[in-house]
Amino acid sequence: MIYLTAGESHGPELTGLIEGFPAGLKLSVDQINHKLHERQGGYGRGYRQKIEKDQVIITSGVRHGITLGSPITLRIANIDHSHWSEVMKPVGEPDPDIAMREVKNPRPGHADLVGGMKYGHRDLRNVLERSSARETAMRVAIGAICIQLLNQLGIQIAGYVQKIGTIDADSNQLLSTAQIEEEISKNDLRIIKQDKVAPIHELIDQTKKDGDTLGGVIRIVAENVPAGLGSYISWNEKLDAKIAAAVMGINAMKGVSFGDGFDISAKPGSQVMDQIYWDPNKGWYRSSDHLGGFEGGMTNGMTIIVNAAMKPIPTLYKPLHSVSIDTKEEHKASIERSDVTAIVAASIVIEAAVAIELCQAILDTFDYNNMERLKKQYSDYCNELKNY
Ligand SMILES: Cc1cc2nc3c(=O)[nH]c(=O)nc-3n(C[C@H](O)[C@H](O)[C@H](O)COP(=O)(O)O)c2cc1C
Ligand SMILES: C=C(O[C@@H]1CC(C(=O)O)=C[C@@H](OP(=O)(O)O)[C@H]1O)C(=O)O
To answer: Where is NADP(+) bound in this sequence (predicted)?
Structure first.
């Protein structure tokens, strides 16, 4: 399976293309739209999310709700485009009577300056529009399709926010996906600890007043994933490496770890390795999951645990120092309407990215042409592992 996304933040729409997806999967558009809706939520988001109402339109590869095996194309409209139709029109000369909202003062932490240098743009809007995390809406739509395939194979995936700024809102226990879903449904921050909701709201409100922004830490958990996805044979087949790359490919991510994460480096080996057991009913299992479900670049049958660190949102209403790319004079960085934090939205995007990689690994391992055949091969493989 390969996928591509296209689209500028204030252009007419986002486009997605998935190729190499099995025929015969019953697809729920409601489930895709539900994930898109979740990505738009979360305390701390900016005004743009009041304008948009993300809904997917499927234009190929699906007939009467069932995938055909042919390329799937997806569209999500940018409702805000109506306010930018002249500035962002894909064809035709710019109207000289309309301000083109050029960006000349690059924002620290954004692609603005380096993107301009690399592609030779003198209006940094040409960079900003595509580097914007608006694009992640399409990755969430693609991920939602992959989640439906994973669910049909019995794999569950869920994510939550562990930290916002300095506030730790995690229970610090390994929770099942069902427990995570239940806890995060109780608040608008996708956190586990309900008593941290009010302090985090206060922190976000205060940070907004200060013209500043926040980042955080996200955890994604995937259950019931069989051993042996990915490979130790070559570096580029290691599934943990592919997941790490996919997570780092999401805007504002600055770190990825698995299981107990960077903490394992300070512990003795006896407290880190997940010891091996066998039971006639369960088959092979481990007594712990410090390594987050990976050994040798392969899933080991334990729950996959992925952690991601998001930097604070780079656009500040109290803008940082910058320099005009035209005059070279000192200027405050440009201000684009912005989120105070998008950690909640990012948790949905990371969940999608992990789901896409797991789905790809499964389609790389089994015959992917037809869903029923895939399910049969997959179940035979799982039984074979049990009896190894
Ligand atoms: C869901 C989501 C929403 C974001 N919203 C904003 C935003 O409103 N303003 C902003 O400056 N950056 C926002 N970002 C972060 C920037 O897109 C990102 O930091 C920037 O493109 C530079 O990329 P890098 O941080 O990966 O280096 C958001 C990121 C995500 C994942
Ligand atoms: C549009 C989305 O996020 C945008 C991501 C973003 C950025 O710089 O990454 C900047 C803001 O764009 P705008 O200036 O249009 O409000 C966010 O709203 C979205 O997530 O749907």
So the answer is: 39, 45
